[in-house]
Amino acid sequence: MVPFKPYFLGEVKPPFDRATSVQKCVRTPDIEEVGKTTRHGTFFQMCGNFSFGDYFKEGAVKLAWELLTTPQDKGGYGLDPERLWITVYQDDDEAERIWHEVVGVPRERIQRLGKKDNFWDMGVPGPCGPCSEINYDRGPEFGAEGGPAVNDERYVEIWNLVFMQYERGEGPGKDYPILGDLPSKNIDTGLGLERLAMILQGVRNMYEIDTSMAVIDKATELTGVRYGDAQASDVSLRVVTDHMRTSVMLIGDGVTPGNEGRGYVLRRIMRRAIRNMRLLGATGPVVKDLIDVVIGMMGQQYPELITDRERIEKVALAEENAFLKTLKAGTNILDTAVSDTKAAGSTVLPGDKAFLLHDTWGFPIDLTLEMAAEQGLSVDEEGFRRLMKEQRERAKADAQAKKTGHADLGAYREIADRAGATDFIGYTDTEGEST
Ligand code: ATP
Ligand code: MG
Ligand code: MG
Ligand code: MG
């Protein structure tokens, strides 16, 4: 929705009052959840509808309800209205009233949540507002009752309606001042396509929907591990599936693996997928086979994946090759570091080891975290980040020195101070003969 920001702020007049979209999303902070919860991917597609000063709360609520609950043969998704639970922002009486009085949701299925869940902003000064979410009750086999406020796996969130009406200022987290009203009241919603598919296809988790299950199947074929046999291998299979989808979508959009920014996001995700395939028992390269399945599943919606297949494969295979070259040696280094740490009576792997693994052996930090955790250790992430920062600063200083032609002469000065003045005798004397 970032391109719409100037419309929300009233800086640019939108060429239309309403819009709908499907956004490709990559959410790296959710990486730890992947495969463990049933509903988080690092890649997902978010369907949305937008109003720029056109319909507002009541309009958005009615549209969402209609789409979700209208029977399938009449063009809706046919969800059972009794299974839908609503959350509203803690003091949004108006939203609660609309859900109850206009739509008819019983009050006991409407819950109020605080800023963390139900007040939305872009993470920077700009538009913001309270939101209201629609959640689907998947039934007692997913745990205790009590609504989304107490069990977000059973009552899975599918759609977030944001009532974008205020402008926020600077401040950390959710601690920012509201500067005032936006020039118009707007709507921005996000409906998770894979989560909706999970419900409509009647599968237990997001990785088992049709377009993802084919990747799980390929991974089981390549490793001989059966899906459903054990919790640990199931998590690995889901991690592989999610991460390969994300990798293909990122490379398709022009990202290449690297050590900074977007490139590093891709590298982390790809390497984690490859390593999980090893955990499952794969010994050779696996990326090409997995990519082919992802492209087969996603190519119809994103034809650029098909036309760009060769480039995508080339980028991915190069990354797999590079990683497989260092994976074994890096794993040995990590194992030694883990034993040393344990022998010293500590449970925290030192930051310099994580840095060495990153710098010399191409182990992104998530991988080190995951591998250390498997052996019962945490990692001194702060120490790791400090070393990373120091390295970046050194690189910056070097680049600056190259640009200005002024290298840091400190080291030479130190030697000169130690050795004292010297005479150059190279014109008259040489040591040995050159050939
Ligand atoms: P949750 O509380 O389940 O983590 P969220 O509140 O972080 O979800 P939003 O930021 O409100 O999610 O995003 C809008 C919609 O996008 C969600 O209602 C959900 O359907 C979908 N969504 C969000 N994160 C993910 C994810 N990691 N994988 C799949 N779908 C997601
Ligand atoms: Mg979330
Ligand atoms: Mg949420
Ligand atoms: Mg949400």
Can you characterise this structure?
There is one protein chain. The chain is of the alpha+beta class. The chain folds into three domains: 199 residues, BirA Bifunctional Protein, domain 2 (2-Layer Sandwich); 171 residues; 36 residues. It has 15 helices and ten strands. Strands 1, 2, 3, 4, 5, 6, 7 and 8 form an eight-stranded mixed sheet that branches. It has a two-stranded parallel ribbon with strand order 9-10. Helix 6 packs antiparallel against helix 9, helix 8 crosses helix 11 and helix 11 packs antiparallel against helix 12. It is globular. The mean pLDDT is 93. Bound molecules: adenosine-5'-triphosphate and magnesium ion (3 copies). One magnesium ion binds next to strand 7.
Topology as H/E string? HEEHEHEHEEEEHHHHHHHEHHEHH
Q: Return the structural class.
A: alpha+beta
CATH architecture of the largest domain: 2-Layer Sandwich
Output the radius of gyration: 27 Å
Estimate the strand proportion: 15-25%
Helix run count: 15
The molecules bound to the chains, other than polymers, are: adenosine-5'-triphosphate, magnesium ion
Question: What number is the mean pLDDT?
Answer: 93
- Give the overall silhouette: globular
Catalytic activity: tRNA(Ala) + L-alanine + ATP = L-alanyl-tRNA(Ala) + AMP + diphosphate
Enzyme class: ligase
Cofactor: Zn(2+)
Keywords: Aminoacyl-tRNA synthetase, ATP-binding, Coiled coil, Cytoplasm, Ligase, Metal-binding, Nucleotide-binding, Protein biosynthesis, RNA-binding, tRNA-binding, Zinc
